Amino acid sequence: MKKKSGNKPDLGTAPIGRLLFSLAIPCITAQIINVLYNIVDRMYIGHIPEVGNAALTGVGVTMPLITAISAFAALVCMGAAPRSAIFLGRNDKETSEKILSGSFSLLVVIAILLTAIVEIFGQDLLLGFGASASTLPYAWSYIQIYAMGTIFVQIALGLNAFINAQGYSTWGMATVCIGAILNIVLDPVFIFVFGMGVRGAALATILSQGVSALFVLWFLCSKFSYLHIQKKYLKLDFRILGPCLALGLSPFIMQITESLLTISFNTSLGRYGGDLAVGAMTILASVMQFAVLPLQGLCQGGQPILSFNFGAGNKERVMKTFKLLLICCVSYSMLMCLFCELFPQVMASIFTPNQELIDYTSWALRIYIAGVGIFGLQIACQQTFVSLGNAKTSLFLAVFRKIILLIPLIYILPLILPDKVVAVFLAEPISDIVAALTTTFMFYRYSKTKLPALIEANKSTAQAAEAAQKADERHQEELSQANAHA
């Protein structure tokens, strides 16, 4: 991926197929490891003697706060990282490093504010998220310590996007693996050996994130990275960061609304189907989470290629990368949908040994997953909008599927259809299909109207920057020769 230490990854000339998969595979691996370590974390908490169930429920109540903390890292860096790659494509390393350094400063400021908010208002927030008298002590014990490590979470999650955006996805995977492995090792030590219980789980998590954060900072200041955090660019400049935040609103909303979506599904299913329906929904959400991991990894692998070549004005590579990404995403989503429709019991039995819950989940999964076959269209097109720096469209699409379609349908369909539980589950595939078709249409229109002119403008900018750089190099060489003769 690199010509030599410190040089730019070969995003502009390497064969696209090999390049995409070399970047995507580490991203997919990192996603899977991250999910698995979260599951292991909860497994340890659930096995705390005598209080395991209450402790696990209490930690579950903290998930909206933890999701919000992660979402703010996405707000800053999931928009900033693609924009830094676009400027790299324009041969504008200085602006790329301004974005990186400014993002680091903004993450620190946000981390301090979030820590203060959680420490001051945390108990009230947890009660609002459903903590009871029996679960609040465990929820508060966990989030109180977790919040103290917010700065580590912001840096590890946020700045890792800049590693991937440069094309160093193997290093990006290492960031996740270091934290995940360390957390898996520390969890049982702190929880059981030291007898710290839930507090031990939180401490293990923030220490692991701290090590990941230090690794990210080391890499972005080392010779292995092309972009570096520069002291002279640490001052917040919202002329630089404003467009990054606008682009980051899309992933921010996608993450922050997950908790709202979970609440909507659970309250409706609890009303119409009881605990069994809510239990099935937990499994369906887990299946969906695992199903989309490879899609997210593919899009993360495609992002630096798309952003760099868009900035460089290389239309052929942009469209070739998008087409390959689209084919891969749609092929995978169709295969996953087919497997779940044919073997729903296999998927359900992974998460529970309870036969009644397996049977209930199996028919529900066939409904819930029905729209996933074309979900690859949506995620490929939507993430390409982000990679190309199109903030307005990516923001609309993030809001469209969940807030405009899915959440209202969860409440509206049961008023129309006779089977209320089926109606709630139907909200997911209807939203997926409508959103996928809408996103595809919008991208097709964008690629035929606005995109060619934007690529041409970027090409002119990149060529001018390259010419100026060569002229400066010639000037420096002439000065050196003149000094040598003198």
List keywords for this structure.
disordered N terminus, globular, 486 residues, mainly alpha, 2 domains
Low-confidence stretches: 1-8
Strand content: under 5%
Helix-strand sequence: HHHHHHHHHHHHHHHH
- Fraction of helical residues: over 70%
Q: Let me know the average pLDDT.
A: 88
| Morphology call | globular
**Count of helical stretches:** 16
Q: How many structurally independent domains? A: 2
Sheet having the most strands: none
Number of strand segments: 0
The helix/strand class is mainly alpha
- For the termini, the CA-CA separation is 42 Å
Radius of gyration: 24 Å
Word description of this protein:
This protein is mainly alpha-helical. It starts with 15 loop residues before the first helix and ends with a helix. It has 2 domains: 18-236, no CATH class; 258-468, no CATH class. It has 16 helices and no strands. It has helices at residues 16-46, 52-61, 63-89, 93-128, 136-148, 150-165, 169-193, 197-220, 238-312, 315-342, 344-349, 355-368, 375-387, 391-416, 420-448, 450-485. Helix content is 84%, strand content 0%. α4 (93-128) packs antiparallel against α5.
